[in-house]
Amino acid sequence: MRLHNREVRQDVRELGALLGDVLEDQTSRRAFDTVESCRTAAIDYRAGDIESREPLATELEGLSPHQQRVVARAFTTYFELINLAEERERVRSIRQDSQDGTLEDSLETAAEELSEADLETVAGILDDVLIEPTFTAHPTEARRKTVKSKLRTVATHLETLDERLLTDKEREQVWRDVDAEVTSLWQTPQVRKRQPEPEDEARNVQWYLENTLFDVVGEVYDELADALDDELDGSIDVPKLFEFRSWAGSDRDGNPYVTPEVTANTLERQREVVIDRYREQLKRLSGVLSQDGSRITTGNTFDASLEDDRERLPGSARTAKERYPGEPYRQKLKLMRERLGRVGDVRPGGYDDADELVADLEIIADSLRENSGETVVEAHVDPLRRQVATFGLSLASLDLRDHRQNHTDAIDEILSREGIEYTSLSEDERVELLTDAVLQDEPIVDLSRTEDLSDTSSRVVTLFDSLADWQSEYGNEAIDTYCISMNNEPSHVLEVLFLADQAGIVSLPEHCGIDIVPLLETEYALSGARRIMGTLFENEAYAQVLEARGRTQEIMLGYSDSNKENGFLAANWSLYKNQRRLGQICDDFDVKMRLFHGRGGSISRGGGPMGEALLALPNSTVTGQVKFTEQGEAIAEKYGNPRIAERNVEQMLNAQLRARKQAIEQPEERIEEEWIEAMDTMADAARQEYRDLLESDGFVQYFEQATPITVIEDLDLGSRPASRSGERTVEDLRAIPWVFSWTQARCILPGWYAVAAGIDAYLEDGAEPRSADDSSGDQPRDGGDVETLQTMYEEWPFFRTTLDNAALSLSRTELEIAEQYADLATEDLREQFFPRVTEEYDRAVDLVKTIGQRETLHTRDWMGENLERRNPYVDPLNLLQTHLLGRTHRTDVEERTLRLTVKGIAAGMKNTG
Q1: Are 743 and 911 in contact (CB under 8 A)?
Q2: Which segments of 128-189 are extended strands (E)?
Q3: What backbone phi and psi angles, to 5 degrees, belong to 398?
Q4: What is the dihedral of CA 608, 207, 264, 199, to 10 degrees?
């Protein structure tokens, strides 16, 4: 069965030709010829038809500033369009594989695996699983919202061309609309002229929740229910499996612009959005449920519910009865819409919480079933019921976050009024003081008094003072989590508990209105996990918090800063070991652990295929509940297209269901002691090599000279500053611009550096390992052996995923281009660092291919096609960027062009930070 009219090559070719026409129309034939000359020179070099990139570099350098800007704009726009073509190809692949029954990681395969267990176990697995994607406002999205909107329109037109049968005239009209949109795109500024504000970022996250995920989630539930019905002997109810959360508008770590007012506005806007969507759905449902009340028996429960609504809303009830005489379901739905309209209103009668709305929908569903309307329930009522269960009355629950130092400083200032010098106390003394204060019945400080506090401390106490009001207005579930970044001590958690207690959010032992989540991201914090969590679990006050929160403790792991501190291999091993350690600690204290994985979009910040990552977690940590961040450009890539969004959600659910089943069957995965020793050896050596690089004299200067970090820091990507204090140190620099800079320079060092050093340490400098297809050669002397590493790769998901992710970063690295950036550094720095990086890269490539027993770095055919299609078109942008970076004085036009090359390379690499 043919599902599509087009293929990716056709999309790429025709979109490229259209862009060429627009370029010529909007500029000149000369400009078109210049871009074509650069394009063909880049392709010819990659194809081996010319010996060097020198002709391309010479041509770019010889252009006027205006011509350079046109070239940068042309290649940037090309990538934005080609990204749409590749997105369409992903949709084709998903649809075709689904049709053929060959779709991997589907809900059908998950149901098939679950069917191996008895019905009670399957029900238990479903009850355990809760997946919480958490959207952040971290500034890694390089495109303007206006540009994204235009590209989404082009994507819709491509879908029409690909999936609908059109007449020639209709097809011409669609292409005319594409032409118009691309023309408008060319005329639209690519670079932001102002820094986005936190509420802009919150609206951006809200768009994906409202316009994609709200509809997609119901479809995923339906697919799972159908798959389970087909595979299981007996029926089973599918419970709530997803909950979406957000940091946009509530994450204060390093961002002074996220004020209490911003958070309040975000809460209000999200509630308005989700209520409007429910009202739309109820209106649509009213068009379906037009049953004649004289021909059906609605049942006592339904009749009593309708009567309650009539008493609650007598005026609206009269209107409903006049509009829908003899149609009880429509009357009920009309009153439900009215109750939704009164949520947060001064008028009485609104829903108090989402559970009340779910209950009304279940009453309607039960009544329909009593009248043989099961298919109506499945098609129209159940999807809405699941949407309400997932999105509640808040769309997405907000997580608050701030840096632990801000809490310490605020407490020091407010306690100084009471004659207590908090910062002079030892850690044990702080824990004792905070514990006694929380257990005391009366508050000891007044958080409403801010007149004598510093600006930062005033923001902290005002936030906690406001939190009680927000929970009263929007419900606890709308904003019930507080994350503490750089949490290194037990007192850092108790400080937040103290502030919440003083604000009236906590009243122990009966009530605790928030989950307090320590973010462990430094080696000191991770290695001290038992010290931190054990102290808390044994603490008299915190033990009452656990009881009030269902004995569940959420712990966040920071992938980004851990990687930046320790390097890729050491960070991954440390995170893996410490997840197991945290699982053991929680088991020792009979606490259920929910891990919150602070993953970024790039490999070096914890990114990579989510399904594989979930299945590679230690079994002892897979409790069923899992939470992870979704950031920057990864949000647009995963959730911009509804079909791709559905596929991502489906893969998450597939992986988590299978991982939970596996954890129940085998609570501790079998890992050979030899493997653990190998990883310890590799990680220690890798960390030493990585730290030695970062701490070498001159490395920070080299980084500043050989990457576009100075340009990236000035880009208006997000509302948050690029560094914590403005100092030029690797430690102070945020992980995102650190990775972004190396990605731009095509040297994705954070994703692979020191992997080879680690492996070589395990092999103890023995003979060179054999290639995958060479059965001869010397064996490594002493130490470890390649065969063991190959076995680890084949049998241990953690090691395989780690090595595969390093391979992805290696395959996206282009050292010839990176050398152009290295040439920007002073000669002594270049000679000190670039050969070292090159040697490590070459060795890593050989080792990864040998251990994986393959000829290429990447294991997916589409990856090779993707790189082959993109690399020639990124090269001109890189060469233009290095040329402009090398100029000591740049005109305003050249500055804008330089910033545009950053956008273009990000689009070409499909990755920023």
Answers
A1: yes
A2: 130-135
A3: -90, 135
A4: 80
Q: For residue 457, what are its two tokens?
A: 């401390």
C-alpha dist (Å) from residue 907 to 76, 78, 82, 140: 7, 9, 9, 12
Phi, psi of 218, deg, nearest 5: -60, -40
What end-to-end distance do the CA atoms of the chain give, in Å? 41
d(CA 12, CA 78): 9
pLDDT averaged over the chain?
90
- Three-state SS sequence of 604-635: HHCCCCHHHHHHCCCHHHCCCEEEEEECHHHH
Distance CA(495)–CA(551), nearest Å, equals: 20
The C-alpha atoms of residue 138 and residue 318 are separated, in whole angstroms, by 50
Q: How far is CA 606 from CA 647, 672, 748, 828, in A?
A: 20, 25, 14, 33
Angle at the Cα of 489 (from 485 to 490), degrees rounded to 5?
Answer: 105
- With cut-offs at 50, 70 and 90, classify the pLDDT of residue 144: low
Question: Is the Cβ–Cβ distance between 160 and 217 less than 8 Å?
Answer: no
CA distance 813 to 745: 9
pLDDT tens figures, 151-205: 999 999 999 999 999 999 999 999 999 999 999 999 988 666 667 788 888 988 9
Is residue 145 very low, low, confident or very high in pLDDT (cuts 50, 70, 90)? Answer: confident
Strands 245-246 and 397-403: parallel
For residue 867, CA distances in Å to 237, 462, 473, 484, 681 come to: 45, 50, 51, 39, 34
Cβ contact 408:382 at 8 Å:
no
At residue 349, φ and ψ (nearest 5 deg) are: 105, -5
Distance CA 596, CA 555 (A): 6
Tokens found for residue 848? 């990864």
Provide DSSP, 674-710. Answer: HHHHHHHHHHHHHHHHHHHHHHSTTHHHHHHHHS-HH
Q: Which residue has the tokens 């509640």?
A: 392
Measured distance CA(647)–CA(856) in Å, rounded: 27
- Residue 629 phi, psi (nearest 5): -85, 145
- Identify whether 618 is preceded by a cis peptide bond (ω within 30 of 0): no
Q: Nearest 5°: phi and psi at 400?
A: -85, 150
Max intra-chain CA distance, the chain: 91
- β-sheet bridge partners, residue 242: 131
Q: Which residues pair with 132 in a beta bridge?
A: 627
* Phi, psi dihedral angles at 436 (to 5 degrees): -65, -40
> What residues are labeled active site?
138, 564
Strand partners, 596: 556, 627
Q: Which two tokens stand for residue 41?
A: 């020179």
Q: Give the pair of three-digit tokens for residue 182.
A: 């691309």
Give the amino acid at 242: F
Q: Are 642 and 88 in contact (CB under 8 A)?
A: no
> Residue 251, SS3?
strand
The pTM score is 0.88
Query: DSSP letter at 444?
Result: S
Q: Which residues sit opposite 555 in a β-bridge?
A: 595
Average pLDDT over residues 268-278: 97
b/e sequence 288-305, b meaning 16+ C-beta within 10 Å? ebebeeeebebbeebeeb
Contacts of 167 (CB under 8 A, 6+ apart): none
Write out the two tokens for 527.
Answer: 């290695």
Crossing angle, helix 827-852 and helix 755-763, to 10 degrees?
60
| Beta partners for residue 400, in sequence order | 482
Give the three-class secondary structure for 503.
coil
Q: 3-state SS of the chain: helix, strand, coil percent to 5?
A: 65, 5, 30
DSSP states of 457-488: HHHHHHHHHHHHHHHHHH-GGGS-EEEEET--
> What tokens does 632 get?
């920057």
d(CA 451, CA 432): 28
State the pLDDT at residue 715. Answer: 66
Average pLDDT over residues 684-705: 95
* Encoded tokens for 637: 């890539």
Instruction: State the Cα angle at 838 between 776 and 848, rounded to 5°.
Output: 40
